Amino acid sequence: MATRQGGLFFARSLLARAGPGATSVAQMIRLQNVSKTYFSKGKGAGPGGVEALKAVDLHVPKGQIHGVIGLSGAGKSTLIRCVNLLERPTTGSVTVDGQELTGLSGDALNQARHRIGMIFQHFNLLTSRSVFANVALPLELMGMKKAEIAERVTPLLELVGLADKARQYPAQLSGGQKQRVAIARALASRPRVLLCDEATSALDPHTTGSILELLRDINQQLGLTILLITHEMEVVKSICHRVSLISGGELVEEAEVGDFFTAPRTRLGRDFLNDFLELEPPRALIERLEADPGPHSHPVVRLAFSGDAVSTPLISRLARECGVDVSILQAKVESIQDRTLGLMIAELMGDAADTRRALSYLETHDLQVEVLGHVQRDD
Ligand SMILES: Nc1ncnc2c1ncn2[C@@H]1O[C@H](COP(=O)(O)OP(=O)(O)OP(=O)(O)O)[C@@H](O)[C@H]1O
Ligand SMILES: [Mg+2]
Predict the structure, then answer these.
(1) What's the number of domains the chain is made of?
(2) What does the pLDDT look like over 205-261, one tens digit per residue?
(3) Pocket test for ligand 1, best of 78, 81, 122 (most atoms within 8 A of CB)
(4) Do 219 and 67 form a contact (C-beta atoms < 8 A)?
(5) Which ligand 1 atom sits nearest the alpha carbon of residue 78?
């Protein structure tokens, strides 16, 4: 799209003038031993307060899209709000682009925050301001002159594909368009980092896809570092390079996205993955699994395989070497970054000794095998 490309070009030149970039391996965000306890009088706070973050260490290199995934109440919003000190950590230090924010206050902190943009689940636009005026707001607050503001806002609106909506008001826009305005506004002060707090959770899947694509473009073309929090594996899969898993205020696992999706190390990581990949047995199979299998039954298995196992003809070898027939009832293959992950529900048909041998064959070939139950022979 020509307009969008033009916008990216202009915005890149804007960001390029924002200051000398760090090298590609430099840390852009560094949280060290960050804890946050809320001492509110609210329900459930208790006398010691709510420990929302516990000794969190997080390092995000320049140019990375880092996702933080966790269940509701895990501390995701608290974590991301500690990065720009919307929440001040109770202990620990936060450093962004080489500047320790936890040592700053007042004007110095406000200045530092110009290098950190943020977008939210519900967009947080001012309804009384036009699209243009929403994007211009942070620049007005910085005391920038009108002409200079227009010079920045126009290419940003092109960047997010909303050049023709400058005079419209938020109420006239779709959710996806509102989030595009919010992205343009977040980029107005030429940030080095973009924080996204569940930025697509209020959007339908198609619009989510287009906003994630825009974020990926911004990351790739402008080299902007992105920290995003989400409860959706799909978001992590779509755009993140690396992911941290948060539970009860602690980062319990951190990995490259390809590794996380193929071999999560924690129970919670596996739960997220299983929910994401869920291969539901068909209704007819559930009924067969619930029925009495009788004396001549077959195991039904769910297989998950990744790495070498994906490209190996395991099923035909299984049939040949163990003397079983394999009926594939459901199958699915997911590509995650440069990795492939396969899932299958299959019925192993043969006598008891053969099916036992087949199960141990599968287990020794790097597949995760789960026996869903036994069914009576169909034939
Ligand atoms: N301002 C506050 N005062 C008191 N407790 C708070 C406050 N904000 C958050 N909490 C508590 O801190 C914990 C973490 O909340 P947080 O909002 O960071 O979770 P979250 O992972 O973003 O959840 P969600 O997915 O529902 O947005 C929760 O127990 C929450 O109740
Ligand atoms: Mg939250």
Answers:
(1) 2
(2) 999 999 999 999 999 998 999 999 999 999 999 999 999 999 999 999 999 998 898
(3) 78
(4) no
(5) 18
The parent domain of residue 44 ranges over 2-266
**Predicted confidence band at 11 (pLDDT cuts at 50, 70, 90)?**
very low
* CATH assignment at residue 350: 3.30.70.260
Highest mean pLDDT among 111-115, 243-247, 261-265: 243-247
Q: How far is CA 166 from the centre of its chain?
A: 30
The DSSP string of 328-375 is EEEEEEEEETTEEEEEEEEEEES-HHHHHHHHHHHHTTT-EEEEEEEE
Among residues 308, 315, 230, 329, which one has the least CA distance to residue 276? 230
pLDDT tens digit sequence for 52-102:
999 999 999 999 999 999 999 999 999 999 999 999 999 999 999 999 999
72 CA to middle of ligand 2, Å? 7
The protein residue with its alpha carbon nearest to ligand 1, atom 4, reads 38
CA distance 201 to 234: 11
Last residue of a domain, one of 223, 242, 266: 266
Does residue 271 form part of some domain? no
Distance CA 87, CA 191 (A): 19
Q: What is the CATH number of the domain that holds 76?
A: 3.40.50.300
Closest ligand 1 atom to 42 CA:
4
Which domain-ending residue is among 233, 266, 299? Answer: 266
How far apart are the C-alpha atoms of 7 and 224, rounded to whole Å? Answer: 15
How far apart are the C-alpha atoms of 141 and 33, rounded to whole Å?
33
Distance (Å, rounded) from C-alpha 57 to C-alpha 305? 32
Residue 312 lies in a domain: yes
d(CA 63, CA 229): 17
Residue owning the nearest CA to atom 6 of ligand 1: 38
Beta partners for 37?
A: 51
pLDDT band at 25 (very low <50, low <70, confident <90, very high): low
Percent of the chain's residues with pLDDT above 90: 67
| 273 within domain boundaries | no
